[in-house]
UniProtKB/TrEMBL annotation:
Keyword NAD tagged: yes
Name of this chain's protein: Ornithine cyclodeaminase
Stored Pfam families: OCD_Mu_crystall
Keywords: NAD
Organism: Mycoplana ramosa (Mycoplana bullata)
Listed NCBIfam families: PRK07589.1
PANTHER family in the record: KETIMINE REDUCTASE MU-CRYSTALLIN
Organism lineage string: Bacteria, Pseudomonadati, Pseudomonadota, Alphaproteobacteria, Hyphomicrobiales
Stated family: Belongs to the ornithine cyclodeaminase/mu-crystallin family.
Xref: Gene3D superfamilies: NAD(P)-binding Rossmann-like Domain, ornithine cyclodeaminase, domain 1
């Protein structure tokens, strides 16, 4: 491993090192610290470039690029979403990301983001609930017990103190796996036989299903006054989880409206239906929950600033942990204009070997 400050070598965080990093820091500490960085960046939301993600949709799924910059650092994430992958033994979502220096354009970090996206999504959900859910919330229903579910549970425990979980999935083995993975983590867990059973009495409802279709995971009669809904699974055109009537009864909070109106639950509503931007709540520019009876809805689709925060946080941990590899990614000729000379010197080395 060479010096961390060597501009011609890019720190690379592999899947193995990301797992080691999370475990070294501690999963709940990682989530809590990451949430703080996300809040820091949301408070300076106006400093960032913002654009809906660049998406390539197909019948099979979607591949997206998510870029942003604060004028000093530039970050982007490559991410896919292919629900059918699970049937083939593959991940539904995979990702990697880059953080660069705006001043010279050099990459400063290349990182896996499959695990990191799960962590940042969970941290973002808990940040939203911190500002929108009733302060006394302790019980959460998680509908859809796939790859994201354990991360959501741990984030809500670490950041909000949620201790009671109700789990439901159309595949009972998914709920059983989630409950087993979370055993001994400080939860009271009940696996449920229906969505209705799971949400009854819940303070917070998290929906995080994967099917790429309009779906009704929650119907209107299932949502009572005062509930906070964390709608994670509806995140591309044609993919929703909530009945439209729930939206019409809720105070809706979003990340970036131009993106959420295309991809989120609110794609079901008129283009001018009023929504509130979460960054304004976090920055103290707008009130969050209005009363204990208000239904609050975080229409989460994920936004590039959250990935920027995650990459920034990971990079801040590399010096102290050493959990990265040196990646020979950037050409480094002896004289910047003599790129071809590098080929000649490589040729000479190969011939003399």
């Amino acid at each position: 491993m060479t010096a961390y400050t060597n501009l011609n070598v890019v720190p690379f965080v592999s899947v193995e090192n990301m797992m080691r990093l999370v475990l070294t820091i501690g999963t709940e500490t990682f989530l809590t610290e990451l949430a703080k960085v996300i809040e820091e960046d949301f408070r300076r939301w106006e400093a960032f470039d913002k654009t809906p993600r660049v998406a390539s949709h197909s019948d099979e799924g979607v591949i997206e690029l998510m870029p942003t910059s604060d004028g000093t650092l530039y970050g982007f994430k490559y991410v896919n979403g292919h629900p059918k992958n699970m049937r083939e033994g593959r991940q539904t979502v995979t990702a990697f990301g880059v953080l660069s220096d705006v001043g010279n354009g050099y990459p400063m970090l290349l990182s896996e983001m499959t695990i990191l996206t799960a962590l940042r999504t969970a941290a973002m959900s808990a940040v939203a609930a911190k500002h929108l859910a009733r302060p006394s919330s302790k019980t959460m229903a998680i509908i859809g017990n796939g790859a994201q579910s354990e991360f959501q549970a741990l984030a809500f425990k670490a950041i909000l103190g949620v201790t009671d979980l109700r789990l439901y999935d159309i595949d009972p083995s998914a709920s059983e796996r989630c409950a087993k993975n979370l055993a001994g983590k400080g939860f009271s867990i009940r696996t449920c036989t229906s969505s209705q059973d799971a949400v009854e009495g819940a303070d917070i409802i998290t929906t995080v299903t994967a099917d790429k279709q309009y779906a009704t995971i929650l119907s209107d009669n299932m949502v009572g006054p005062g509930v906070h809904i964390n709608a994670v699974g509806g995140d591309c055109p044609g993919k929703t989880e909530l009945h439209k009537d729930i939206l019409l009864r809720s105070d809706i909070f979003v990340e970036y409206p131009p993106q959420t109106r295309i991809e989120g639950e609110i794609q079901q509503l008129d283009a001018d239906h009023p929504v509130k931007e979460l960054w304004e709540v976090i920055a103290g520019k707008r009130a969050g929950r209005e009363s204990d009876r208000t239904i609050t809805l975080f229409d989460s689709v994920g936004f590039a600033i959250e990935d920027f925060s995650a990459l920034r946080y990971v990079r801040s941990k590399l010096k102290e942990t050493g959990l990265y590899d040196d990646l020979d990614l950037l050409a480094d000729p002896d004289e910047p204009r003599d790129l071809y000379g590098m080929l000649l010197r490589c040729e000479a080395r190969l011939q003399s070997a």
